[in-house]
Amino acid sequence: MPVVLLHALSLHSSMWQAQQRALSERGHPVVAFDQRGFGSAPLGDARPSLDVVADDLARVLDARGIGRAVLAGSSMGGYVVMAFLRRHPDRAAAVALLSARATADTPEVREQRLRFAEAVMADGVRDAMLSQVTPRLLGATTRGARPDVLARVLEDARAADPAALAWAQRAIAARPDDTDTLRATRVPAVVIAGDEDELVSAEESRHSVNALPQGELVTVEGAGHLQPLEAPGAVTAALCALLDRIEVPAC
Q1: pTM higher than 0.85 for the full model?
Q2: Which domains does the chain have, with CATH numbers?
């Protein structure tokens, strides 16, 4: 079964390197997809919208001859998964959502995203802002014990195209409430949450699980918002368990 891996904001597809390697070794075709403006993908000139990224993914799958796939998305990648479910609902064989809330942003959070989009374009502000906010993507345990992971995430954030960061934040801010989208998603599903996530609460993760008819919750201890980097083995195991629910076990 093909598996699509969608990265978090300010990172790129290499954040899934451990999972990509493990799943490929077990015979699963893996599409580690760079979203617009990140990694090797050009930003283009479309208006900010996660629907645009979802349709980009559909075209990539078409080009590879893939009809249905398991969709796994971390943070922004999870929001792209939900947009894909709205626009291409019959193409999901299973779903994994990591650190992505089903509800739309509150007005306050939406305004914070839009302010970020403005500030990240300012040369005199960008580096200090990224240095302040990026560490919150990791849990306290990772920040304290894994300086290599913190350094890697900071490096990726600073190397990201500011225009892509701004575009993505505006796209995320404009997303709708996808609770009903998840209620209509009747395939095996898992919500993976870090117990030290400072951006998506345990309550928000439970809301997503409760909306998914076949949803299960996996909580990763000692991890924050970026579990694929902070606890790669636990995330790989959760994805393998999801695959086992839809086909002959391959993990």
Answers
A1: yes
A2: 3-244 (3.40.50.1820)
